[in-house]
Amino acid sequence: MNNSTPILSVRDLKVHFPLDEGTVKAVDGVTFDVYAGQVFGIVGESGCGKSVTMKAVLRIVEPPGKIVAGEIILRRSVAGANGSQMDDLINLTALDASGRVMRSIRGAEIALIPQEPMASFSPVHTIGDQIIEAIMLHQAVNQREARKIALQMLKDVGIPIPDQRLDEYSWQLSGGLRQRAIIAMALSCNPRVLIADEPTTAVDVTTQAQVLRLLRRLQQDRNAAIIFITHDLGVIAQMADYVMVMYLGLVMEQGPVDEIFHAPKHPYTQALLRSIPTITMTPRENLPTITGSIPHPFNKPRGCPFHPRCEKSIAGKCDQAVPPLRRIGANQMVSCFLYE
Amino acid sequence: MQMIFQDPYVSLNPRMTLFDIVGEPLLVNGMTNRKERVERVAELLRLVGLRPEYMQRYPHAFSGGQRQRIGIARALSVNPRLVVADEPVSALDVSVQAQILNLMLDLQKRLNLTYLFVAHNLSVVRHICDRVAVMYVGKLVEMADTLELYAAPKHPYTAALMSAVPVADPRIKTGSVELKGEVPSPANPPSGCYFHPRCEFAIDACRIDAPAFREISPNHFVACHRADELKLPGIA
């Protein structure tokens, strides 16, 4: 398999949460492709559906949330009849979320680095036991071999004295080490897609720099794809190759990182970038703001979800229909009527 | 002196109306006439950009940014001269952060307030603050006027911090200085300069003596033995 065919393709994914008060359309038609060796960034503010999209990919959306439409295609290579490599396409939405196939994919081919390293490890089992359990679940190895792999993983992520750390509990580790241990666990089965959901929000700036550097290095060594979810535009600019901007369950814009930051097309992306203080601007001047606040999921506006806060919204158009995601430029796509 | 808290979702009592929340400091400070309090609360809500008609509502009816405005109104109710703001925007969404930063700057000018602004986001600090103090394991390591500190940091920790901050521009690659190791526990700090085990410029003196916090140039203070000789990169 080469890097020009997507390893993961999501098509028109919709995840809805039917609640007593009404249906929350957390993800309402999201389409994107992730390629091997790519860091695919997803940015958006709270309630934009970035985390739910990833939970759908892993098939761990909490009830009552349900995937109501769309496809999630994972491409993997299998040995063909005459020893050649063939591409096998699996639609993850068609699988039983707790069935054998999905369980063999989750944690092995698609792994997750969760947001909160403290809450992700069990406090009553050692780090080593938890990593070894994951390895033995997905690979045909015995306890001793699994321990060897786990030890090597801790070494790879730069944990000092790994053989001692392996037998410690998560609460004995500092925040930075714990986050490294989580990364070691996620990588222990050689995933081809690694989902990192705000992996550095719980650690301080200098540790964040270490973790980002580590992820970059591991990704290049293994040619894995990383889907990097964050609300921090600085982290995205430094980490991602390709960026998708989401707002209220929809994709506003996606494109290569340089285009998103230097030639943003969607008014939401433009406004978002203007509103962050940068280290080159004149201090103490008023920042351009986006008026209003993010609507509550129960009263999402009709039409383009951003139109009530958009300076360029076209009356009678933006408030009537959702603009389709259209291609502008080689790799950039935007969902906005301004570019029809 | 008053305080603005970090998380507007936990710093407002969900069982109190805006009038009770913003009016309580007034009541405590002797404004016992309810009518006077209503007037003052209305004035404060207008000041922070909320409609006075919302006075009888509860915090749950408001978004994160609006809640932070309520917290600011409460802090300003007793005309403080000094406001301590502990990470006032770090719990807010990006598009709302700018609104609150603008409000804080505007209020500072109008009411001639002094802020002690605690934050870890260096871009926000640069935007808001006149003067910055950098702390490491319970001690000040450097203090200077904002632009001078950012352009020419004198302490290796300050320089590492600046390098570690991800800049929101893919054409500027940050992270040239890598800080190894972990922040030591304040219960068991290293000898001498607390930063020496992680400092690439450390010399023997750093392991033994804790450097004094001294004025290296007018109004620029630093605690480093080698501050005079080191040329450290800043961010312009």
Keywords:
A: 340 residues, alpha/beta, eight-stranded mixed β-sheet, four-stranded antiparallel β-sheet, 26% strand, B: 236 residues, 2 domains, three-stranded parallel β-sheet, 8 helices
Secondary-structure blueprint:
The complex is a heterodimer of chains A (340) and B (236).
Chain A: E1 6-19, E2 22-35, E3 39-43, H1 50-58, E4 66-79, E5 85-91, H2 100-105, E6 110-113, H3 117-120, H4 127-138, H5 143-156, H6 162-165, H7 175-187, E7 193-197, H8 205-222, E8 225-230, H9 233-239, E9 242-247, E10 250-256, H10 257-262, H11 267-274, E11 326-328, E12 332-334
Helix pairs in contact in A: 4-5, 5-7, 7-8
Chain B: E1 2-4, H1 18-28, H2 34-47, H3 64-76, E2 82-86, H4 94-111, E3 114-118, H5 122-128, E4 131-136, E5 139-145, H6 146-151, H7 156-164, H8 204-208, E6 214-217, E7 220-222
Parallel strand pairs in B: 1-2, 2-3
Antiparallel strand pairs in B: 4-5, 5-7, 6-7
Helix pairs in contact in B: 1-2, 1-3, 2-3, 3-4
Structural notes for this entry:
The complex is a heterodimer of chains A (340) and B (236). Chain A has 340 residues and is of the alpha/beta class. Chain A is built from eleven helices and twelve strands. Chain A has helices at 50-58, 100-105, 117-120, 127-138, 143-156, 162-165, 175-187, 205-222, 233-239, 257-262, 267-274; strands spanning 6-19, 22-35, 39-43, 66-79, 85-91, 110-113, 193-197, 225-230, 242-247, 250-256, 326-328, 332-334. In chain A, helix 4 (127-138) packs across helix 5 (143-156) and helix 5 crosses helix 7 (175-187). The radius of gyration of chain A is 21 Å and the shape is globular. The model of chain A has no long low-confidence stretch (mean pLDDT 87). Chain B has 236 residues and is α/β, with parallel strands linked by helices. Helix content of chain B is 35%, strand content 14%. Chain B is built from eight helices and seven strands; from the N terminus they run βαααβαβαββαααββ. A four-stranded antiparallel sheet of chain B has the order 4-5-7-6. A three-stranded parallel sheet of chain B has the order 1-2-3. In chain B, helix 1 (18-28) crosses helix 2, helix 2 packs across helix 3 and helix 3 runs parallel beside helix 4. Chain B is elongated. The model of chain B has no long low-confidence stretch (mean pLDDT 89). At the A-B interface, helix 8, helix 9, helix 10 and helix 11 of A face helix 3, helix 4, helix 5, helix 6 and helix 7 of B.
